[in-house]
Amino acid sequence: AAKDNGRGRFFFYAEDLHAEAKARAALEKDLREALVKGGLELNYQPVIAAAEEKITGFEALLRWNHPEKGRISPEKFVKIAEETGLIEQIGEWALRTACHDLAKWPDDVRCAVNVSPLQFANPKLPAIITSAIAEAGIPAHRLELEITESVFLSDDANTDAMFAALKKVGVRLALDDFGTGYSSLGYLKKAPFDKIKIDQSFVRGATEPGSRNGAIIQSITSLAHALGMDTTAEGVETLDELDLVRVLGCSHIQGYIYDKPLSMADATERLRTGLDAKAQGPKSARAPRQ
Ligand code: C2E
Ligand code: MG
Ligand code: MG
Ligand code: MG
């Protein structure tokens, strides 16, 4: 009976996998169509300088509102786009759109765009970026590329060459989701990052008694700052978390405590009005610690 059971389960799984593959193929087709027909959007989440409490820039984040299925999380559709290679075109669209939008904001505002490891492995990336910033008429240093540690898993020589080429173009480079991958110090030694983004999994729970996260955040910020890099704490949601990451030395803050990712129009409005009063909470980070 156990054997029968096992076989039955095998067929059940196979059918399941088949259905899943079909659903993915359908989603890929819809995604391709969305890219062509203007169904993708970028939202912009403010990044705030901790000391001045001022917006220094935004992170561009992809949004897809599927005609039947509604909003699909970027975690899900970016993964499909990476598996199918579609991320090359979607990523280029995101770069060009972000540069175009960035041109409408004041000169001291920056924009960060996420770059997939697949784009990073494409030797044409520096040329695509050069053309995107020229078309928008913005200086390269206003554009920041967010790269994850996974780019270091592929060929060393190519990775080094790509970093050198991007530096030559003049864009800023940020190491995204730091602490979630291999987090080798070797990356920090050889790659010319301007910023480390501390993953939100370290911020989450950092205010709980006995949490080790604070010690980790503090170590990352002192290391980064000694290397001349900025640090952004990702996913700051509460006033307690905001207070803590400032004390621990994060130079920049990003999270729902200030703003969720906003439409282009709302992001522009936010620049005009300044930050929401709700986040201008206790400034204990500036007072001596108890
Ligand atoms: P990411 O680059 O690490 O982006 C930060 C994510 O954290 C975003 O999720 C953002 O909405 C979310 N977030 C920001 N503040 C908070 C907070 O206070 N609390 C919580 N719980 N979350 C917060 P989102 O927009 O769902 O994007 C998820 C991931 O999808 C991104 O992670 C990035 O890896 C990928 N992605 C998004 N847009 C692009 C893109 O244009 N290109 C590529 N290659 N990947 C993208
Ligand atoms: Mg990012
Ligand atoms: Mg991140
Ligand atoms: Mg992430």
UniProtKB/TrEMBL annotation:
EAL domain span: 24-275
Name assigned to this protein: Phytochrome-like protein cph2
Lineage, broadest ranks: Bacteria, Pseudomonadati, Pseudomonadota, Alphaproteobacteria, Sphingomonadales
Residues of the full protein shown: 474 to 763 of 861
